[in-house]
Design a protein that fits this description.
By secondary structure, this protein is of the alpha+beta class. It has a single domain, classed as PH-domain like (Roll). Helix content is 27%, strand content 31%. The chain has an eight-stranded antiparallel sheet, sandwiched between helices. A hairpin with a 2-residue loop joins strand 7 (99-103) and strand 8. The longest helix has 17 residues, at 120-136. It is globular, with a radius of gyration of 16 Å. The termini are far apart.
Length: 148
C-alpha cells in the first residue's frame, strides 16, 4: 500500500501502525544500532509505482525504516513524500549486485553505488529481522498436509 505522507495525518499513522507496528522506542533504536537506512538512489520501479517518481530526469531517492512487523519505504517526489508500507509476510528482498524490494506485485530496485555499499550492515539487519519474523509466524504453506 502506497500512502502520500507529505503531511502527517491521524488516519495514515493508524493505518501504518496497524500494518507494520508502532515505531521502535528510542532505547530499542539505540540497541539496534539505528532503524533507518541511508538515502539510496532508485534505479527502477514496477510500472504500477511510476506515478510516485519524478517525471523529469532528476534522481529518485528512497530510504527504508524498520518497524517491528515490516518496513516503510519512503520515496521523495519533488516536495511530496510517498511511503510504501510493506509487512514482513509480504516482503521479499533480492540481494544481487543491487538490492530490490518486492511485495504486493510491486518492486523497487536500488542502484549499486557508494550509498548502497554504506547500507550493507542495514540490509543484513533487515534480513535478520525478516528471518526472526518468519520463525515467529511460520507461513501456512510450510505445514505438512500429509499429517492431517
Amino acid at each position: 500500500m502506497i500512502l502520500e505522507t507529505t503531511y502527517s495525518s491521524k488516519e495514515n499513522k493508524e493505518l501504518i501502525n496497524d500494518l507494520v507496528g508502532k515505531p521502535f522506542s528510542f532505547l530499542q533504536n539505540i540497541r539496534m544500532g539505528g532503524i533507518g537506512s541511508k538515502r539510496m538512489i532508485i534505479d527502477k520501479v514496477s510500472p504500477s509505482m511510476r506515478q510516485v517518481l519524478n517525471t523529469v530526469s532528476d534522481l529518485n531517492y528512497g530510504n527504508i525504516e524498520l518497524r517491528p512487523k515490516g518496513i516503510l519505504l519512503s520515496i521523495t517526489k519533488g516536495l511530496r513524500n510517498f511511503t510504501w508500507v510493506v509487512p514482513y509476510y509480504q516482503f521479499y528482498m533480492y540481494h544481487t549486485p543491487a538490492v530490490s524490494i518486492h511485495a504486493q506485485g510491486k518492486f523497487v530496485l536500488f542502484k549499486n553505488n557508494r550509498t548502497h555499499r554504506e547500507n550493507e550492515a542495514f540490509f543484513k539487519k533487515l534480513q535478520r529481522l525478516k528471518a526472526e519474523y518468519d520463525q515467529q509466524y511460520p507461513h501456512v504453506d510450510s505445514i505438512d498436509i500429509s499429517t492431517i
